[in-house]
Amino acid sequence: MSSRMICAGCGWTAPPLDPRPFRCPHAGRDDVDHVLARRLESASPVPFFETETNPFLRYRTFTHAWHTAQAIGMSDGEFVDLVRALDAHAGGIVVTPFEQRDGFWVKDETGNVAGSHKSRHLMGLMLWLLVAERIDPSLAHARLAIASCGNAALAAATLAHAAKRELDVYVPGDASPSVIARLETLGANVTRCMREPGVAGDPAYLRFREAVARGALPFTCQGNENGLVIEGGQTLGWELASQLAARGAALDHLFIQVGGGALASATIAALEEAQALGVLPRMPRIHAVQTLASPLRRAYDRVLEHGIDEAIAHRSRFMWPWETAPHSIATGILDDETYDWAAVLRGVLSTGGSVITVSEDELREANRIAGDDVSATGSAGLAGALSMRCGDESVGVLFTGASVTAPLSVTPTTAS
Ligand SMILES: Cc1ncc(COP(=O)(O)O)c(C=O)c1O
Ligand SMILES: [Zn+2]
User: For ligand 1, is residue 223 a contact (CB within 6 Å)?
Assistant: First the structure.
């Protein structure tokens, strides 16, 4: 098989046809940062120049799911049918717009399924599960679990509903009632999790971990919990590379808002693959953008001093939960920890980029410029771009989420 899942921390490789290549078996046993990443032996640049509008069809040969499907004897046509059937129920994922606005190159995800780029991560993961259950039929009946109260949960509920799978969503105690109502309309089982005095870390995340330990499948947008979520997110970066190539354009800088880090990790991996295939002439400088509560900035400052290899070998000295509950209008990037920090910092360092923090005023101003359709989280990367003087260099940003939750694209589950 020419696709493998390899741990970026210790080099462990999942056996071919492993139906659960989600997490390194050594994770949690030592202080190494263990995260599985998909590695392709070979690939063709042809998909970048095709006209297919569904990214999961267009870039299917880049996915671990497609390679595994081939290895177990599924035909390409059968895989295509699987993608089309899931997509028909999920509401239709299509290549999103990429255009110049106000002097910036903007990749606009606000019209994506469930109103954000998160559906990409979870579409990729659901396609994996549909293939993997042919290897291990018990996967078809396992519950799915996610910790989130925002776009990731909405995307997870949309995809779980589309595939008729049971989903448990762990949300913080202060989660918005309208989001909870929406999740329940989509058939998700929602559990509120309160912060406990003296216990650091996101309580919803801790409950999610317990559920996974009991056998639930991590249907999440965090690469450390499930390395396969990154790949679906890579469709965004592959599209970006293809859209730049079609315009004969290149980016000098790309600003990416970072919460858990999966978006930035996926975008960096996708652009690196596009560059390796000769589609992208050079990598843009990657700038990771967080609010003033920034575990990634804290890790970055330490990494500049000690080096990334030292950091990956001693995770707890570089990344730990932010001590106080953070507040910001950019609610989607307030994760206590940057779970995919190592992959993001590697990309920042190798491209000569940076980690930037932005104030609430800067977030508000960026959101005003981005317009009513974009959420404050969705325009947080623009806040980073505005705070840095890039002169006449070409700058890209990602408008990752819509301000109002997109209309339901699937038929709600009726209570029975
Ligand atoms: C709209 C939007 N943009 C960006 C992010 C950040 O993505 P990540 O958590 O993968 O860093 C989120 C996460 O919730 C989001 O909802
Ligand atoms: Zn490992």
Answer: no
